[in-house]
Amino acid sequence: MRLGLGITVLLLLSSASLTAQTADSTGWNGWQFLLGEWVGSGGGSGPGQGSGSSTFSYDLQRRVIIRKNHAWYPATTDRPAYSHDDLMVVYREPSKPVQAVYFDNEGHVIHYTVTLETSGVTFLSDSSAGPRFRLTYTGAGPDSTTIAFDIAPPGKPNDFSPYIRAGARRRR
Question: How far apart are CA 127 and CA 48, in angstroms?
C-alpha cells in the first residue's frame, strides 16, 4: 500500500516537473494570466463603449499563442451598431524579442514587439510613418485584467493618447 502511494506521488511529481519543463522549453512562462476565455466591457464613450469576448490559447504544440477577439459596439448618434473581429498570433524567433502580428476584419495588419512584465504584457507597434499603437493587458486579480489601447499620431511615436479602456473577466 505504501509502495503504491509512493509511486503515485512520484508520478505526480514527475508529471508536474515535465509540465514545468515544457513551459520553460517553449518560453511561455508568465503568460498563464492571459490564457483562457474572457468576457469584457468598455467604459467611457466612443470606441471604448462596447462589449466583447476573447480567447488566448496555445497552438502549434505551444509554439505560438493565439488571441481571437470579438467586440460589439452599440449604435450612437454618429454611427450604426457594428462588430469587430481580430486575430493575433504571438510568436518567438531565436535571438529576438517576442513578436506578434495582428489582423482584423477592417483590413488592418499590425506588427508588434511584445514585452512581458510582472504586472502584465505590452504590445508595441513599430514607429513607422503612420500611427503607432500600444496594447496593454494588466493583471487585476486571478480572473480579471484591464486592457488599454493607445495611439500615437504620425510623426510623434511616443505621444500616446488613450483610445480604448476596458476590463475583462475570465469565464469559468
Answer: 24
